Amino acid sequence: MIPLLLAAALAPVPATVAKMRWERRVLLLSAPRADDAGLAGQRRALAGWDAAARERDLAVVTIVGDRVSGADDGAAGLRKRYRLPAGRFVAILIGKDGGEKLRSAKPIAAEVLAETIDAMPMRRAGER
User: Fold this and answer.
1) What is the DSSP letter of 14?
2) Is the domain covering 4-122 a CATH 3.40.50.10860 domain?
3) Which of 22, 39, 54, 86 has the most beta carbons within 10 angstroms of its beta carbon?
């Protein structure tokens, strides 16, 4: 589960990942089970990162089995759209333009997320 504070800090979020386009970056996390080691590692990596995520307009959407949290999309539709295997952990960073910016089969360190987001043209333009 994503830290409650992170989820609350990012509310309100548009209903679907597609509707988040141009408003939020999305960290899409997919795992076969709630006790998946990759998902647990990603949650640890995001712990305490609430303010940084909020500053970067980052929404976290999690798919565990057939359940989705953080968006109103169905699990099957998200898995198909983003080519997510049902049997293993995958993390994808999606930019505000809707494009995939980073994909990993391992948890992504908060520092890597920050560096990747901060290098995005829309993020740099927003800092001016």
Assistant:
1) -
2) no
3) 39
Spatial contact of 102 and 44, defined as CB atoms under 8 Å apart? no
| Residues 15 and 72 sit within 8 Å (Cβ to Cβ) | yes
Residues in CB range of 57: below 8 A, 6 or more apart? 23, 24, 25, 96
CA pair distance 78, 109, nearest whole angstrom: 23
What global pTM score does this model have?
Answer: 0.85
Residue 111 in contact with residue 56, Cβ under 8 Å? no
Q: Kindly report, residue by residue over 77-119, the tens digit of the pLDDT.
A: 999 999 999 899 999 999 999 999 999 999 999 999 999 999 9
Domain ranges, ordered by start, for the chain: 4-122
